[in-house]
């Protein structure tokens, strides 16, 4: 009897989890939304690089990088996901470096992230 209750409880839990996760996985983004997210992310990364090159303080650079980090989350495309994650790691490195006052490392990481996002943009545009 006890194993039957466990089985029923387990089955209900699995059904509930499946039902709750479906709407998240069903989200689709149009070509225009993905392209706009890529272009906006590139713009924000360029603004961050410009701030570093123009001698902005670490708080300003960290805030600009934070905006870029948030924007890149809107790049929702299965084909680009791995590349987005790698570029996002560069943004995270830049953000941590800026918060710590290492603007040279922040600038280098931002430039690396920018080249990755530009590559993603080129790949996305050529395939759509």
UniProtKB/TrEMBL annotation:
It comes from the Bacteria. Residues 1-26 form the signal peptide. The keyword Signal applies. Keywords: Signal. This is Small metal-binding protein. The lineage of its organism: Bacteria, Pseudomonadati, Pseudomonadota, Gammaproteobacteria, Methylococcales.
């Amino acid at each position: 009897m006890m194993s039957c209750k466990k089985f029923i409880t387990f089955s209900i839990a699995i059904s509930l989890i499946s039902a709750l996760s479906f709407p998240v996985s069903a989200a689709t983004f149009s070509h225009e939304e993905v392209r706009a997210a890529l272009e906006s992310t590139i713009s924000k990364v360029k603004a961050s690089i410009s701030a570093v090159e123009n001698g902005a303080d670490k708080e300003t650079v960290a805030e600009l990088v934070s905006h870029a980090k948030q924007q890149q989350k809107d790049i929702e495309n299965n084909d680009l996901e791995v590349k987005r994650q790698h570029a996002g790691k560069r943004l995270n490195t830049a953000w941590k470096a800026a918060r710590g006052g290492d603007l040279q490392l922040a600038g280098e990481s931002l430039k690396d992230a920018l080249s990755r996002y530009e590559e993603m943009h080129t790949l996305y545009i050529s395939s759509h």
